[in-house]
Structure formats: C-alpha cells, structure tokens
C-alpha cells in the first residue's frame, strides 16, 4: 500500500539517535536544548519547548494561555479532534467557527461572530500546511481581548507575508508525528514569546515543579528541594527523540522544497480534470505542504477513496468535523453548525505526499485517480 504520508529517515538521523543512546543522557539532557534551539531558528527566534506530542503541545499552550473553566475557545472544526479536545479538558467551552471554502482555514468573519466576553483564545489551524489569515484573526482577538493560538501541526517552515510560522500568534504548536514534514517519531513543541507564559508552559510540561529557590514558598531545605505550586504533567520529550528531531530540522528546507515540487507536479497533472477541485494558495503565503487535499465533487468521494485504496493507494480523509465525534455530540453539539467545513469534509481526499514519493509513484496515483473519475 502506497501511504498518504511517510517519514524520511537518513543515515544521519540514525547516527544522531545512536550517539545519544551511547551517551550519558537519554532524557532531560543536552539534546533537548539543542533541538529547541534549532527549532527556534524556524520560528524567527521565538523560544520553543519540546513536548511529547502535538496534542501535548496544544494542552500546554492552553495552560500557558490561562484557559480554564468558564472560558471559551473559538476554533475550526476542520482539524484533528485534539485541537478542541485539549481545550475541553481544561474545562473550557469550545465554540466552533466555520472555515474558508477554498483553503479550509478558519474564517475571520466566522471567528468574529463566534467570540464573546468569555473568549480566552482563538485557535487557528494551518490546514494542510497553508497558514491561516493571521492579520485578520489578530484583529478579531484584539477586539475580543483574547489570545491568538496557531495550531501549526501541518505548517512548520511556512511563512505568511514574509513572517515565519511561530511568530504569527501568541502561542504556536507543532507536531512531529511520522507523517509530518519533520518527525521525532512522537513529539511536539510550543513556541511562546511572552516570558511569563513560557515559564508557565515549562513548569506544566514538567509536573509543575519549581526548582529555583527564588520561586519557592519554603526554600532552604537543601539542593534536593522542589515544590509543586500548580499541577502539571510529564510532557518531556526525551533526548533520543530530540536528537532525531534536530537532525531532521537540518533537512527541513529540503523537505519543504521536495513537497512543493510534488504539489506543483500534482497541480500540473490534475489541471482541468473534471470533478476535481485542487488546493488553493494565497499569493502572500509560502505553505509548508503537509497534505495535498483535493476535493472530489458530485458525491463521488467515497467511491474514489474505496477504489483507490483497493488499488493499493492509501488516500486519506482529513478530517471528520470535530463536533461530529460522539464526545461532542454528547455535549450538545449538532451537525450543520459549520456548513462550509462540512461541505469541505464531504469532498476532501488527501493524495500521497511525502519527500521520498517518486515521480513514477506519483504518476501511478494520478493515473488511478483519473481512471476512477473517468469510469
């Protein structure tokens, strides 16, 4: 089965991991800081914290933003459920706002209509690797007195109006799952510019521990003394995985270039094919393509999905609208809430896209797709 996404592991990646395995630190060691420093080069210098997953990154971001019971978080339903679930786990009410019909990113007008006096944060999702409309969303947040969070699980390395993802929002989260542009196997990170929010995030990812005597309530007991002032969790990403991530980041430019080349080739090969809508791109955005999301019109998405899978091509659908999941249905959310997102989902299909995808494999995908649509 040709997968829709796949990691690209080099000998250098393997050597970086082996070096850590042969060293003194498997976790909480120097490879973590090296990875975070390397990642900050891609966020325009905004400090980063490595965590155990993209989901953990979202959870940490909501903690750093002060999201809690009684608050509201406005976000897109066209995303993996974790974007909303981690806000709900903080006790917040998730308010879903509709998406742009072409890019699938959060619509600023819909977000503006969804905010209220209780909105603590607006979380944009850089769907497929295309940055959301951050200038407009920043204005929405300013009027609402809310923080802007970027779920950049898809868009590491992308730019918006010349600025890198990581500098566009108050907090930015990344994912390093194997299908993403850069992988640490499992892993994520949070980029946080504000020092106090960074401190809060750093404590939360490490059980809430306070080790600096200057910040302790009852210091003076000895070098072993540590305190927990607010509950946290163990979201530390170990040195082994950070070593892999740092090695991968050194190839991020090449990964992005290859993905862009494959996207341009798909665009050319599929131009004018009846029954398809190809992905959109704003002229002021340089995406970091994680997905190649086509839309299959005329109610044929399921047929195309099943027939391509039967032919050994692992197309995928990204994503079920978050509030369609039973956990949100049980909270009172109903279908029809975001018509544009639901219409996008009804047609969306991700074609295989990863750096090691060959031209011959891509030709096979296109030939299968066009044959199914033409039959």
Automatic annotation (TrEMBL):
GO terms for biological process: polysaccharide biosynthetic process. Its cofactor is pyridoxal 5'-phosphate. The keyword tRNA processing does not apply. The modification N6-(pyridoxal phosphate)lysine is found at residue 180. Keywords: Pyridoxal phosphate. GO terms for molecular function: pyridoxal phosphate binding; transaminase activity. InterPro entries: DegT/StrS_aminotransferase, PyrdxlP-dep_Trfase, PyrdxlP-dep_Trfase_major, PyrdxlP-dep_Trfase_small. CDD domains: AHBA_syn. Gene3D superfamilies: Aspartate Aminotransferase, domain 1, Type I PLP-dependent aspartate aminotransferase-like (Major domain). It comes from the Bacteria. The keyword Flavoprotein does not apply. The active site is at residue 180. Belongs to the DegT/DnrJ/EryC1 family. PANTHER family: DTDP-4-AMINO-4,6-DIDEOXYGALACTOSE TRANSAMINASE, TRANSAMINASE. This is dTDP-4-amino-4,6-dideoxygalactose transaminase. The lineage of its organism: Bacteria, Bacillati, Actinomycetota, Actinomycetes, Streptosporangiales.
């Amino acid at each position: 089965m040709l997968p829709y996404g796949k990691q690209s592991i080099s000998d250098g990646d393997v050597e970086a991991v082996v070096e850590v395995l042969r060293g003194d630190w498997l976790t909480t060691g120097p490879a973590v800081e090296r990875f975070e420093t390397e990642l900050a080069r891609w966020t325009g210098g905004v400090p980063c914290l490595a965590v155990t997953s993209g989901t953990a990154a979202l959870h940490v971001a909501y903690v750093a933003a002060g999201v809690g019971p009684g608050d509201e978080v406005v976000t897109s339903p066209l995303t993996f459920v974790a974007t909303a679930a981690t806000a709900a786990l903080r006790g917040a009410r998730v308010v879903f706002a509709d998406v742009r019909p072409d890019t699938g990113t959060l619509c600023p007008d819909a977000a503006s209509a969804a905010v209220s006096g209780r909105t603590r944060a607006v979380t944009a999702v850089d769907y497929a690797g295309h940055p959301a409309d951050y200038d407009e969303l920043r204005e929405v947040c300013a009027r609402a007195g809310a923080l802007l969070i970027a779920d950049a699980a898809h868009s590491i390395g992308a730019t918006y109006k010349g600025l890198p993802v990581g500098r566009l929002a108050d907090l930015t989260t990344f994912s390093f799952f194997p299908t993403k542009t850069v992988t640490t196997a499992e892993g994520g990170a949070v980029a946080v510019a504000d020092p106090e929010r960074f401190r809060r995030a750093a404590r939360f990812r490490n059980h809430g521990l306070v080790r600096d005597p200057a910040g302790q309530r009852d210091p003076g007991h000895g070098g072993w003394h540590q305190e927990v002032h607010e509950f946290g969790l163990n979201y530390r990403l170990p040195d082994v995985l950070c070593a892999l991530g740092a090695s991968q980041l050194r190839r991020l430019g090449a990964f992005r270039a290859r993905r862009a080349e494959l996207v341009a080739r798909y665009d050319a090969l599929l131009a004018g094919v009846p029954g398809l809508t190809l992905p959109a791109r704003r002229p002021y955005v340089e995406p970091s393509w994680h997905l190649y999301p086509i839309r299959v019109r005329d109610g044929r998405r399921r047929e195309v999905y099943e027939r391509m899978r039967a032919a050994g091509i692992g197309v995928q659908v990204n994503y079920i609208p978050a509030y369609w999941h039973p956990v949100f249905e049980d909270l009172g959310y109903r279908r029809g809430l975001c018509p544009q997102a639901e219409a996008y989902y009804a047609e969306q299909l991700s074609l295989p896209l990863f750096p090691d995808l060959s031209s011959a494999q891509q030709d096979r995908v296109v030939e299968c797709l066009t044959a199914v649509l033409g039959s």
